[in-house]
# Entry
Amino acid sequence: MWLLPGERNASVKTIGVRQLKNEATQIVRAVRDQHALYVITVNGQPVATLRPYSDRDIAGMQRSQAASEMAAIERLAGAVGEAWMSVPDVDDVSETPRRGRERIGEEA
# Structure
């Protein structure tokens, strides 16, 4: 487990999800006040870490969101490009007039 700048080198504690549920307030207080680090397990298997929050956390979330939005923009750009390529050229459109577009009051 890695430490962020300013975090104390605390030992990593492993706790089960049931213990986390029963002692959540005390555990969160230890993370906040003592910079404690926890590995949370379910059925003995590690599933999450609990560590002090830092400004780097929000920056990571923002990078992740930006990457997701860029991927969506790239998908949209690809779809627009494909649609653009399937539009016929003006030269390919027939010069014959369309029927049914007479003005009101005019006879065909």
